[in-house]
Amino acid sequence: MPPFGSGLLVLTAPLGALPRRAAAALAAAAGLVAGPLYVHLQPGLRLAAAPPPSPAAPPPAGPALLRALAALYAAAARRGMDLRVLLGPGRRLARPPRVLLLPANEAPGPPGPVQLGLQSLAAAAYGCPPNLPALLLGDPAGDLDGDPEEDPECDPDAALPTFSSVAVGGTFDRLHGAHRLLLSTCCLLARDRLLAGVADGDLLRHKVLMELIEPYELRVAKLREFLEDVKPSLRYDIVRLLDPYGPTITDHDLQCLVVSQETRRGGEAINKQRLEKGLPALALHEIMLMQDPDHSENEEDKISSSSLRHRLLGTLLRPPRQDPALPSRPYVIGLTGGTGSGKTSIARLLGRLGAFLIDADKLGHAVYVPGGPAYKQVVATFGAEILHEDGTINRKVLGAKVFGNQERLKSLTDIVWPEIARMVKEQIREAEAQGKAVCVLDAAVLLEAGWQDMVHEVWTAVIPEDEAVRRVVARDGLSEEAARGRLRSQMSNRQRVEQAQVVLCTLWEPDITRKQVEKAWELLQQRLGHDRNP
Ligand SMILES: CC(=O)SCCNC(=O)CCNC(=O)[C@H](O)C(C)(C)COP(=O)(O)OP(=O)(O)OC[C@H]1O[C@@H](n2cnc3c(N)ncnc32)[C@H](O)[C@@H]1OP(=O)(O)O
């Protein structure tokens, strides 16, 4: 774990040289700073000069600065760093730096004039305490310090246009490098105010793995903190977007909308509406999409929140519940998921990896076979019309009676759940007797039944509703309406995700599901301190 919670990196190289050097500078800083890394750009600054250096206005907002920002944010994104390149000094930073860093080569020894210059710059520009540790990030090639070389492609005089009031919209989930570059561009374009619309509600409905999108309040808090750190002189109006237009079609003061290749058409639609309402059209400023050099086969090639959500699948999202009443062995995973979510195929894969499988659906059927512990009570409650001629319960008829009718479903589950739970506990004892370290309890309605106290972790399979309906119609021969009714009698994906330690998704090819499950299993073994074979 890097020793400092936050840091301030001062870069004095010419802007044109930064794209080639960003990765090395951030690699050196990443080993020292765990949390936010602020960057102060002051090309040509000589920190050892007398009198002590003073902070200068940020570099001019032109293509050279944009390229430097793009390189820095791309390099930070590769390392998952929380980078904030400061575009104007101002009030204290949200996470005050605990260390000051400068890429420079100097012989080790007591702090010299460079470190003292660094401390006085940080104090003057950002109110840092004067005695913060100031470290030089040595580089054997001596390649990180000021180098007069400029990027020949950059016209140093070309300036970005500026506008009093600028707007931008997005979901801003897990504020990644591309968001940070987009927002920094907005900050450079805006002189007084930035209106940021944050998508929520129905706008998220069709997003990939929408259940893993951070809550609106968290997205807004991170966005505001980033913006206020980066350019504190602007006014930020952050609003909830429930449709693609938001206030951009009514706000008289707006002058510019920042778009990407993908959202330009949305910007044009906004302008059409503005003109119809007698408002002036907005200047559309298009930014480049930032490429993700590390994207895998099934991910987009641009840096995207959906790829980041993808990478969360199979990982531990929140710490397991600690319940001293639960025996530590075998370790029980409660695997749940709505109908059609593919949890049974996940259970099978876990079985192949060595888990002991308990299928609650099957135990559910077993409790009301004739002579079973729940048979008489189920027949007494639902009548003889649920019986086949041979006296066994016709599950199709029983299912039609209970699915879509909460009261009847509750009557059934009040009878069968305690019996199924008893059988599950027997099976866990059996797993222990066989010396199995991990049990997977495959239970469709584990959370609805309140069975969390029987398991160490909850893993949930999620699938978009339309896909679940398609699968259930094809598999169980139900009508679309009946399939939707069955789904809606269960918890939503989001409710399950909120209570789950691990989330898995079977939306893509079987091979992708297999890799997710292997990753989840591998990480579980690490948590349990096991080798691969339980
Ligand atoms: C706590 C647990 O998870 S126990 C396991 C779930 N079983 C129960 O809750 C017992 C009550 N349910 C039943 O007895 C049966 O499901 C019946 C009779 C209603 C229907 O039987 P069948 O038509 O054979 O359907 P089956 O049992 O395969 O269940 C079909 C789907 O209904 C869902 N389902 C089962 N029970 C419930 C329930 N109580 N509430 C909501 N949905 C349920 C399951 O998700 C299953 O889908 P999946 O196989 O994709 O996961």
TrEMBL record:
NCBIfam families: dephospho-CoA kinase (TIGR00152)
Biological process (GO), any one: coenzyme A biosynthetic process
Cytidyltransferase-like domain sequence ranges: 168-311
Main location: cytoplasm
Listed InterPro entries: Cyt_trans-like, Depp_CoAkinase, P-loop_NTPase, Rossmann-like_a/b/a_fold
Quaternary state and interactors: Monomer.
GO MF, one annotated term: dephospho-CoA kinase activity
Family of the protein in this entry: In the central section; belongs to the eukaryotic CoaD family.
Naturally occurring in which organism (per UniProt): Strigops habroptila
Localization in the cell: Cytoplasm; Mitochondrion matrix
Catalysed transformations (reactions): 3'-dephospho-CoA + ATP = ADP + CoA + H(+); (R)-4'-phosphopantetheine + ATP + H(+) = 3'-dephospho-CoA + diphosphate
Function text: Bifunctional enzyme that catalyzes the fourth and fifth sequential steps of CoA biosynthetic pathway. The fourth reaction is catalyzed by the phosphopantetheine adenylyltransferase, coded by the coaD domain; the fifth reaction is catalyzed by the dephospho-CoA kinase, coded by the coaE domain. May act as a point of CoA biosynthesis regulation.
Keywords, in A-Z order: ATP-binding, Coenzyme A biosynthesis, Cytoplasm, Kinase, Mitochondrion, Multifunctional enzyme, Nucleotide-binding, Nucleotidyltransferase, Phosphoprotein, Transferase
Transferase found in the keyword field: yes
UniProt protein name: Bifunctional coenzyme A synthase
GO cellular component, one term: mitochondrial matrix
